[in-house]
Amino acid sequence: MLGNMKQQMKSQWMEAARLAGIQLAEALEFWPRIQQYYGQKHRHYHKLEHIAELLHWASRLEAHIEQPQAVHLAIWFHDLIYLPHKQNNEAQSARLARRLMQQWGLPAQLVSTVEQMILSTAGHQPRLESHDCRLFLDMDLAILGSTAAEYQAYCLAIRQEYRLYPDFLYQKGRKHILKHFLQRPHIYFTAPMRQQLEQRARENMQREYESL
Q: Which of 12, 43, 47, 94 is buried most, with the most CB atoms less than 10 Å from its CB?
């Protein structure tokens, strides 16, 4: 990641922390840890660039977000823990986020909301009856509705993260995930994301499914 983009992301983190009520010193102290988590060598897609993409969508859809503090913290924290061979990354990320937010003295309701939003990324089914939770999940899947070239780069990056698995195992698991989403009535829960990305997401995923 280029230095100017990293500096921009640091500013975005500091602003999200300020709005959530995190003290300046604590936010500054945590920034290197954010870089450490998202800069791990085994990550090829789940990196700071992924967080930047979600922040971009959050900015575009700002008028649709009811609790920006919760949404932005969920964006920053939802992939803190990511090990491709583990099945509990979401739960581990949520647990870490809860511990950090409690340590920083954030309101219990905010802590719970962010935790549940992160847990919702396991299976991408909302655990909260809130528009923000559904919108957050949609933003996390925005890559599915990207251009064909961007989607292909995403596929290659995900394959790199699972490079320890032989092709026949990876393809079986990947087809299962693609089939799950393609069989849903809608890939995206919210109208703004559905209108912009649904059709292209289905085209991308169907093309990948047929190639496996």
A: 94
Burial of 62 per CB tally in 10 Å (0-12, 13-18, 19+): exposed
Rounded average pLDDT over 12-33: 98
- To the nearest whole number, what is the mean pLDDT of the chain? 97
* pLDDT beyond 80 at 1: no
- Looking at the chain, the whole-number percentage of residues with pLDDT higher than 70 is 99
Domain boundaries, the chain: 3-122, 144-211
Axis crossing angle, helix 167-182 with helix 191-211, rounded to the nearest 10? 140
**CB 139: neighbour CB atoms within 10 A?**
24
Task: Please tell me the pTM assigned to this model.
Answer: 0.97
Q: What integer is the mean pLDDT of 14-32?
A: 98
- The first and second tokens of residue 47, run together, are 């990196």
Query: With helix as H, strand as E and coil as C, how does 97-164 read?
Result: HHHHHHHCCCCHHHHHHHHHHHHCCCCCCCCCCCHHHHHHHHHHCHHHHCCHHHHHHHHHHHHHHCCC
Grouping H, G, I as helix, E, B as strand and the rest as coil, residue 104 is coil
| Interacting residues of 11 by C-beta distance below 8 A, sequence separation 6+ | none
